[in-house]
Amino acid sequence: MYIRRDKSNLHFGRQARQRGSRTWFILWLIMMGAAMGVIWRFNSVQNWVLASVSNAPTATLDAITLAKLGERAFLVGNVEESVDYYGQSAQLAPNNIDILFEYGRVLIYRSYAGRNYYFRAEEALELAEQAVQLAPDNPRAQALLCISLLENGRAEEAISAGLRAVQLAPNYAEAHAYLSLAYRGAERPNQAFTEAEQAVQLNPDSLDARRAMALSLAFVGNFDAAIQQYERAIQIHPQFDALYFELALYYKAKFNYEAAIMAYDKVLSMEPDNVKAYTRKCETYFTMREDSLAQEACEQAIQLDPTYPEAHRQLGMVQYVRRNYEGAIESLKECADLQIAQEVPLPDREIECWYIRGLAFTLLAQCDDAWPILQEALQMSPAENIKGFISEGLMSCVNYGDYSINEIPTPIPNTPIPAEPIGIF
User: Tens of pLDDT along 63-89?
Assistant: First the structure.
């Protein structure tokens, strides 16, 4: 049998592979050429695409979508962004009590960031009054009014609003939580605990209920139990920095300074530019007499925000104990000037920025500078121990022979100072 080799499978296969190789080689050249062209034209192509996208109309977000974005921002720890989204949402839906409540709540939370943010609590109160005017029998409106009044130093009025809220909605955990905080602000510990306990029973996963319970326990000195409640609150919302600041306060009350530093470091791991956390670290290291670490933390805070009075105050105190009196005077003067410029009320000013600066001047034998500053400090209703330091400073100037003891003014009697807002820790 004669076999046609030119028709065999083997022969056909070889011819097919040869033709296919040439075809794929040509296709490869075409593809590479196109790719090089795209790379060469990438910038112009990119600009064209971006121009097309930027010219497209932007969709307008509705109030509910903006509120959801506000909730999401809060859950990831960006309270300022949450305030912005809820604010936009409230503008679009000014009669929606639920949106107004959430907006007011994040305004309160933002006010905890420090003295520079107290105005947020004032905004929350205006919002709460608007909500109550719209719906006086709405428990969320009354609950918002309760916490807002409290954070503006009006605890007794806050209690009235809180009682109205729980009357309207007996099973509303946040209403009981805010009423508990109001009782705490009015120094009624038993009622504060009862309402906090009720709030936790109604909703064990409520951030506000757990926080109210922690604060009611801490108010009577049960710091261990308070810390446990804060740990539970942190499990509910691990990104909320105010919880760590308050937790650290009670670690320090137990002299567990290392744990307090860890709490501040946790805040800084979430927010590396948190000025308040660096300032609180500085204060804690100062208490531990780790003065070098304290100064480093304060200087970092000032680098991040030169307008933060507390950082200048604490740096000045560190410099003072390290006998850098000239540096202390400079830092404490900056602290005082900032508070005056920011129109901080006299009773709320950092008195250390006055009397310690005056003492530093006396140690440098500069009584002409020390005398008026110490006199001004006496007008700020100082505590008894601070009055003693001020008197010693004034007597130093008398001993130097520059002033007469008859020129030492009689200090104004102490007047009760309202309890500080809860969230300043």
Answer: 999 999 999 999 999 999 999 999 999
Q: Rounded to an integer, what distance in angstroms lies between the CA atom of residue 218 and that of residue 310?
A: 24
CA-to-CA distance for 413 and 379, rounded, in angstroms? 9
Q: Cα–Cα distance between 101 and 161 in angstroms, integer?
A: 14
By three-state DSSP, how is residue 96 classified? coil
The Cβ of residue 271 has, within 10 Å, a number of other Cβ atoms equal to: 15
The residue whose two tokens read 């927010």 is 271
> How far apart are the C-alpha atoms of 45 and 39, rounded to whole Å?
9
pLDDT tens digits along 271-318: 999 999 999 999 999 999 999 999 999 999 999 999 999 999 999 999
Distance CA 218, CA 3 (A): 102
Contact (CB, 8 A) for 115 and 309: yes
Distance in angstroms (rounded) separating the CA atoms of residues 342 and 367:
28
Burial of 341 (0-12, 13-18, 19+ CB in 10 A): exposed
Sign of CA dihedral 265, 268, 272, 276: negative
With contact defined as beta carbons under 8 Å apart, do 265 and 297 qualify? Answer: no
| Residues 228-244 pLDDT 10s | 999 999 999 999 999 99
Phi, psi dihedral angles at 185 (to 5 degrees): -60, -30
Q: Tens digit of pLDDT for each residue in 118-176?
A: 999 999 999 999 999 999 999 999 999 999 999 999 999 999 999 999 999 999 999 99
- Rounded to 5°, the CA angle 222-223-229 comes to 100
SS3 271: coil
